[in-house]
Structures are given as C-alpha cells and as structure tokens.
Design goal:
This protein has 212 residues and is mostly helical. The chain is built from 9 helices and no strands. The chain is globular, with a radius of gyration of 23 Å. 18% of the residues are buried.
C-alpha cells in the first residue's frame, strides 16, 4: 500500500488592514494608554516615557499622530465627550416618559462618570484650567458644559421648567454624580454599586423637572 500523502490545508491569506485602519488603531492605543496611565498613576506621572511604554510605540509615532503631549490630552478630551454623547444617543424626548428618560440618563451618565476615562478627563480639565486662555476661544471646561447642555436639552428640553432652572439642575446632577464617584473611590476603591444613591437622584430630578 502506497504511503498516504499528507493533507495540505490551504493557507488563508492574512487580511491586510488599510492605512486608515492602522492609523485609527494606533491612535486608539495611544489614547487608551494615556487614560490608563492617568487613572492608575496620576496626571503628573503620565510622562512621554510612560505613554510610549504603555502604548508600545515610539515618541516619534505619538508626535506623528498628535503633535505633542498637549495634542494627546486634547484627543482624550474629545474622545471622552464623544463617548458620553454616544451612550445617550438613543434617548430622546419623543420616545419615553420623563421618568424613563431620567432613569436612562442617570444610569448612563453614571457609567461614564464612574469610568477611568472620566477620571482621566477630569484631571486633564484641571490642568487645562491652569493654562492661559486664548481670546475668543472657549476653554475645555466651557466645551464640557456645552456638550453636557446639548445632550441634556435634547433629552429634557420639553420639561416645563425655565432655562435657568435647567442649568441649575444640570450642575446639580453633574455635581452629585462626580462627587459620588469620588466618595466611592475613597470609601471602597469603587467596588460598591450606589444603587440607593442613584435612585434618590432619579426621584429628585424627575420631581424637579416636572414642576411647572
């Protein structure tokens, strides 16, 4: 009986990524490295060497994509704003009751604010606050509140309260969620789920938005 010939499986060609895909992947890896570093070791220790080590790229690659360290920080802020908006993209004033919208808004806003991305965003914003303002150009703090306001008004713009009251409720909600995230980080390293606190915020916000 003749020796059986070995079966040769066809070699699958490796999928070749486009230049745009490779660029997007590298940028995402660098942004993720910055977020991870700030969340773990703090803003001051997030150096160029730390960023490149975590991202697995050279500083030349970082400069190619972002220009300098400030360019990376700006990209992190933009990424944070975009991700927050995406979490609430499917919530609108036309499809759900005020109570339901409030619940969805708080739950998804909390997911964002309790994340390492928001913690890193907050530290970057604190650093940006110390920079000299550019005339006729909004600060990143102003951009943050503008982004928050656009999302808020899309979801709660039909509530029977004044525009001024809307601003008060926005700041109240952001303050409660940010403060809660900070307290839980100190209290239990962020492991406890603040269901009771979030429910209380939902109830108070729904009540205040309902007042004519």
């Amino acid at each position: 009986m003749a020796d059986a010939k070995p079966i040769r499986l066809p070699v699958r060609a490796r999928e070749r990524r486009t230049h745009a895909e490779r660029t997007a992947e590298t940028r995402a890896r660098i942004i993720a490295a910055v977020v991870e570093s700030i969340a773990e070791v703090g803003f001051a220790r997030t150096t160029a060497a730390e960023i490149t080590r975590r991202a697995g790229v050279t500083w030349g690659a970082v400069q190619h994509h972002f220009g300098d360290k400030h360019g990376i920080l700006v990209a992190v802020l933009e990424n944070s704003f975009d991700r927050f908006a995406a979490r609430l993209d499917d919530v609108s004033s036309e499809e759900a009751s005020l109570e339901k919208r409030t619940s969805l808004f708080i739950d998804r806003a909390w997911e964002h604010i309790a994340s390492p991305l928001y913690r890193s965003t907050f530290e970057i914003l604190l650093d940006e606050a110390g920079r000299e303002e550019v005339p006729d150009e909004p600060t990143w703090q102003q951009r943050l509140f503008s982004a928050w306001d656009r999302i808020w008004m899309r979801i709660f713009g039909d509530a029977p309260v004044s525009r001024r009251r809307q601003h008060v409720l926005q700041h109240y909600t952001l303050s409660v969620l940010s403060g809660l995230a900070s307290v839980l980080t100190l209290e239990s390293a962020g492991t406890r789920q603040p269901g009771a606190e979030l429910e209380l915020l939902k109830q108070s916000l729904t009540r205040e938005l309902s007042r004519s």
